[in-house]
Amino acid sequence: MAYPDHVLIKEVGPRDGLQNEKSFLPTEKKVEWINELSESGLNYIEITSFVNPKWIPALADCYEVATQIKRKPGVTYAALVPNMKGLEKAMEADVDEVAVFMSASDTHSKKNINKTIDETLPVLSETVREARSAGKKVRGYLSTVFGCPYEGDVSGEEVLRITDRLLEMGVYEVSLGDTIGVGNPVQVETSLNHWTSRINPEYLALHFHNTRGMALANTLVGLKAGIHTYDGALGGLGGCPYAKGASGNVATDDLVYMLHEMGIQTGADLSRLAQAGRFIEEALGKPLDSHYMEVIRAGE
Amino acid sequence: MAYPDHVLIKEVGPRDGLQNEKSFLPTEKKVEWINELSESGLNYIEITSFVNPKWIPALADCYEVATQIKRKPGVTYAALVPNMKGLEKAMEADVDEVAVFMSASDTHSKKNINKTIDETLPVLSETVREARSAGKKVRGYLSTVFGCPYEGDVSGEEVLRITDRLLEMGVYEVSLGDTIGVGNPVQVETSLNHWTSRINPEYLALHFHNTRGMALANTLVGLKAGIHTYDGALGGLGGCPYAKGASGNVATDDLVYMLHEMGIQTGADLSRLAQAGRFIEEALGKPLDSHYMEVIRAGE
């Protein structure tokens, strides 16, 4: 299959990136960063998570962030919601769309949200129904699709079963997450061939982590499998707390750089992404770990 | 084209990695590191460069390193030689094989060795002839094949012309180098399709730098193009002096990890590579920049 002309990048840095930060980034810094991202040509930004602040204190200001950002026409501002309670708060803040999430591994699911897969499905079903009846589109995240930190291998049939269920609920797209960055190109190719033989790739997105450096290689495989939507976090934010660079999301800037060099459009402006990168580096007081930001620093 | 069952990794860390280090690594540390690498299952190690120490002071002890290492049967110990003078010293030290190098860009060539491409060819021709008449195999490096820091684009026809000339001289393999890490997967695929339509891919190797994070993605493309020999430097040594990680060789350990996960054999033992990685981290007093070493540190 040929590469597509255009790829949609979904920026998850303000949610998936910041949720792992140990220190609380002040609300005005979050707002200003999202405003910077809005000017970078990205047209989808997941801005926060409406989850109990007991679980993710770093995003306790979800409502304030969602209501204080400047919304740029043409940009979709999404937020993660774990359940009805989160959805209600997200609706109050009037986000453009919401995302629900679950795991493809029972053990990971129980450790993460204290529910099994089959206990989670009805919770999400209710949430998706309610969101849609209020006119909101809903995205789904399915994590650990290429491997679980507790169980190791994850069943491809189980990934299919859950993806089918999420789509049946009314989710418009399922973002398949390599949560711990263990998927290798052969596995990703084999899995995607399996999954896309039963599910239209237009309903799938890929969410890679670059833990072992394979995210861009896996992106090539995803493109060849006909998947045209990719999640990224600016500068590879979302790293493991134990080691710099050890488990962040694939860096949006590295992803955009590669795609543009390949002649694939994303709509993003790399120099504006770098500007947003420098802003968050300063706000967090540490350098971002992406190759693109490192190359820029080397040239300065 | 399907992936191969086996890939040959050529470790260039002791030469291409260490030549960029600012502080002089003591000879006994170099020797001990190479001895560690010899026990990792790698069967090709480029140990040093017999170049005027005025140009690369970090490798001024090339003769001592070559004569003091413990040579493990089955491992090929190679050294870079720029000309007849370097070759003579390398022959005295009885390295197993030698490598000659040149650039595919005239400006890079002049800045690097003060000779144009066409001035370099006869120098290498003489060196290759002499080495082969003494029974030594000779490898060729061609740098900047996917882009030049001074000229930008590099002509694919010029790469072919020089590669042909090197093979005609008697070089058994040309390692095509993405010296500044700018090659993208579409460019690499297009270029390799062009080059392998005229040159048997068995005579080609790929030498990627991970400056912009695309080295493993480009490796996938190389494998699909039928190229089965890849250069790497343990831990991604060989970085730019200005910024951590900004222009190192692709990390041997990340390359081996991905290949093994893909079911492709290399003969290398990752735990022994990690041991050699920890040794050189301690000797240099800094952490290595590869994903594999970072994952190991995160788990410790």
UniProtKB/TrEMBL annotation, chains A, B:
PROSITE patterns: PYR_CT. InterPro entries: Aldolase_TIM, HMGL, PYR_CT. It holds the Pfam family HMGL-like. Keywords: Lyase, Metal-binding. SUPFAM superfamilies: Aldolase (SSF51569). PANTHER family: HYDROXYMETHYLGLUTARYL-COA LYASE. This is Hydroxymethylglutaryl-CoA lyase. GO terms for biological process: ketone body biosynthetic process; L-leucine catabolic process. GO terms for molecular function: hydroxymethylglutaryl-CoA lyase activity; metal ion binding. CDD domains: DRE_TIM_HMGL. Residues 7-274 form the Pyruvate carboxyltransferase domain. Belongs to the HMG-CoA lyase family.
